[in-house]
Write a sequence for this structure.
């Protein structure tokens, strides 16, 4: 199911671009969310990180830090910075529709 940018306009974001209501997120929004953050093409590695972020949030009530992401997601910290150059944990959390992880500025 493909979503348009108009769908994003119906969602409430906070001043930093994070979902006010993480339940409003679904995978169909990911391509537009990624484009909004300068990622034009999503690879399987992007999806692996986005899904990991979402699962961690749903399981623990908070998104993982970059260190946890690098250790547990199956994507190295070096790769994380290549995939999400503006700050992997913060950017991946925004695209995954979850609140900003602790420790992110």
């Amino acid at each position: 199911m493909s979503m348009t940018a108009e769908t994003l306009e119906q969602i409430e974001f906070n001043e930093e671009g994070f979902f006010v209501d993480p339940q409003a997120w679904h995978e169909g929004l990911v391509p537009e969310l990624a484009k909004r953050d300068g990622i034009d093409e999503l690879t399987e590695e992007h999806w692996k990180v986005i899904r990991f972020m979402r699962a961690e949030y749903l399981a623990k009530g908070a998104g993982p830090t970059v260190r946890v992401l690098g250790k547990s997601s199956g994507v190295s910290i070096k790769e994380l910075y290549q995939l999400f150059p503006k700050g992997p944990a913060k950017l991946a959390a925004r695209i995954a529709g979850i609140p900003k992880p602790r420790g992110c500025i």
User: Anything to note?
Assistant: The longest helix spans residues 44-60. The chain has one domain: 13-96. The mean pLDDT is 90. The domain at 13-96 is CATH 1.10.10.370 (Arc Repressor Mutant, subunit A).
